[in-house]
């Protein structure tokens, strides 16, 4: 019997590898810009503590910088406009909400946000078939997620705000899915270049995973509790020849609007497959059709999602230790060469958002860094984690650096980046001791956080301002601990 099982396992592995070979060469892998970012959204009834969780790796090629800013509530003059990068303008509202802003200078689709209501936004590139977009004055790109952060009190609010703008002036990129979570729930809004979009709520007891292709499939726009979208989303697909009700059956947004080379890319399929099989009670083959969302095998913790963000196909048929580092693998893993940061948003609806919404951040590569808690209610950013202030950052966002690393050499982000690159130079020799140290320090951070969190929850009722002062001090303490940890380990050779 054991021999039979071994033969069966070898056959399954052989079929999987043949499948990968065929897809890798029949569907050419174009530039990595198609495969930037990875996200997981988890409903409140699928988590251990009842929080909504949102995990994201921000992947961007080249040498990049990440700035941290806290933008306060701002009032705006009557008649003030937002000037879009393609030339259009949108009217600004009278008051915009406060938010944490992770800014990547020069990048159009890379910034992430958590606002004062806990609304957290990041995105994943998703190529579409659209080649005849309807754009007014160039449409919108960079500013869409910022406007959502400035104006939305919930994830669904953000979807409606984005949808109204897209309906009005159109979207300027091939396609993208914005993942949006708040302390009560999570949504995805998938946008096609031009004026077409669809949004779906993640069920409260489910997990939804997205690499860099559309994952929304069957839609029901009459169910406004769970779906929103362009009213002509089906009719337009029929007109373009992307969907035939007679031969295709039920409308499938992913198949109708998604670019086939993206949908069939092993670089997308493998990452989703890997993450689903970590969290799902059902184990899938790469060739299987994956669900939009699913119930997890066990309720999910922050640590579980951190583990997924660190993944390189370990203990699967795709693991390859013949290369110098898993980050150089052509079938890009979840934690990859170009990952600029990993984050897990912990959003708790039973607490005031200043203390209930926490952004756990691991600068550069999450597989070797410590995730540090940033409370959304902080009012200060530690020195050397940003260039200038939030106002100058927005004005200078698209100004080009001749050499960004030299021009910002005192920025703490480079400490994290240099540490990641040093490990990559000798990854398999260093990774075991690095992981052991990382595990110890991460647990120390969690222990300190849990003790501190209990104290401020009780204190907030009595003295909210004292709590804000306390979370400023605590957050800076945790950040300093993480950067001191990597600098100490660099001195010891990893």
Task: Outline the structure in words.
The chain has one domain (31-406): 4-Layer Sandwich (Penicillin V Acylase, Chain A). 37% of the residues lie in helices and 20% in strands. The protein contains 15 helices and 18 strands. The chain has helices at residues 2-26, 143-151, 155-169, 233-239, 245-248, 253-257, 260-263, 266-279, 302-309, 353-356, 390-396, 404-407, 413-424, 427-462, 464-491; strands spanning 38-42, 52-59, 67-71, 74-75, 81-83, 89-91, 95-96, 99-103, 112-115, 120-125, 171-182, 185-194, 196-201, 207-210, 227-229, 339-347, 357-363, 372-375. Strands 3-8-9-10-11-12-13-15 form an eight-stranded antiparallel β-sheet, with helices on one face. The chain has a six-stranded antiparallel β-sheet with strand order 14-1-2-16-17-18. A two-stranded antiparallel sheet has the order 4-7. Strand 12 (185-194) and strand 13 form a beta hairpin. Mean pLDDT is 93; it is low at 1-31.
- The tally of beta strands, per DSSP, is 18
Measured on Cα atoms, how large is the radius of gyration? 22 Å
- CATH architecture group name: 4-Layer Sandwich
**What is the count of helical runs?**
15
Coarse morphology: globular
Ranges where pLDDT stays below 50 over 5 or more residues in a row are: 1-31
- Major beta-sheet overview: 8 strands, antiparallel
Beta-strand percent range: 15-25%
């Amino acid at each position: 019997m054991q021999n039979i099982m071994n033969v069966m396992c070898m056959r399954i592995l052989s079929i999987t590898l043949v499948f990968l070979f065929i897809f890798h060469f029949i569907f050419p892998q174009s530039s990595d810009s198609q495969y930037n970012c990875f996200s997981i959204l988890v409903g409140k009834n699928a988590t251990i503590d009842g929080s909504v969780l949102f995990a994201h790796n921000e992947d961007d090629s080249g040498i990049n910088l990440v700035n941290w800013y806290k933008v306060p509530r701002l009032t705006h003059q009557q008649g003030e406009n937002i000037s879009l990068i393609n030339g259009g303008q949108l009217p600004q509202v009278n008051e915009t909400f406060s938010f944490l802003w992770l800014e990547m200078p020069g990048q159009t689709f890379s910034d992430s946000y958590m606002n004062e209501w806990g609304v957290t936004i990041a995105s994943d590139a998703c190529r579409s078939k659209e080649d005849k977009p309807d754009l007014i004055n160039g449409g919108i790109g960079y500013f869409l997620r910022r406007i959502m952060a400035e104006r939305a009190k919930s994830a669904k609010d953000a979807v409606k705000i984005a949808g109204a703008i897209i309906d009005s002036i159109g979207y300027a990129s091939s396609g993208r899915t914005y993942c949006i979570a708040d302390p009560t729930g999570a949504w995805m809004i998938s946008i096609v270049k031009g004026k077409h979009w669809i949004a779906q709520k993640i069920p409260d007891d489910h997990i939804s995973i997205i690499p860099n292709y559309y994952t929304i499939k069957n839609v029901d726009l009459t169910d406004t509790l769970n779906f929103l979208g362009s009213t002509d989303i089906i009719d337009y697909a029929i007109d373009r020849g992307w969907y035939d009700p007679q031969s295709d059956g039920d409308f499938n947004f992913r198949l109708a609007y998604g670019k086939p080379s993206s949908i069939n890319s092993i670089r997308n399929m493998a990452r989703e497959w890997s993450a689903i099989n970590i969290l799902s009670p059902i184990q899938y083959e790469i060739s299987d059709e994956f669900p939009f969302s699913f119930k997890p095998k066990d309720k999910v913790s922050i640590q579980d999602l951190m583990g997924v963000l660190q993944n390189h196909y370990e203990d699967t048929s795709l693991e390859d230790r013949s290369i110098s580092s898993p980050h150089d693998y052509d079938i890009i893993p979840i934690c990859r060469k170009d990952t600029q940061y990993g984050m897990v948003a912990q959003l708790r609806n039973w607490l005031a958002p200043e203390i209930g919404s926490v952004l756990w951040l691991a600068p550069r590569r999450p597989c070797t860094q410590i995730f540090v808690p940033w409370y959304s209610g902080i009012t200060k950013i530690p020195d050397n984690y940003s260039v200038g202030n939030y106002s100058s950052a927005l004005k200078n966002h698209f100004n080009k650096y001749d050499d960004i690393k030299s021009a910002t050499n005192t920025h703490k982000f480079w400490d994290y980046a240099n540490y990641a690159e040093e490990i990559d130079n000798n990854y398999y020799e260093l990774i075991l001791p690095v992981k052991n140290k990382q595990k110890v320090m991460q647990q120390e951070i969690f222990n300190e956080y849990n003790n501190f969190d209990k104290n401020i929850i009780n204190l907030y009722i009595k003295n909210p301002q004292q709590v804000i002062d306390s979370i400023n001090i605590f957050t800076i303490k945790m950040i300093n601990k993480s950067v001191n940890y990597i600098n100490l380990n660099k001195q010891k050779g990893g």
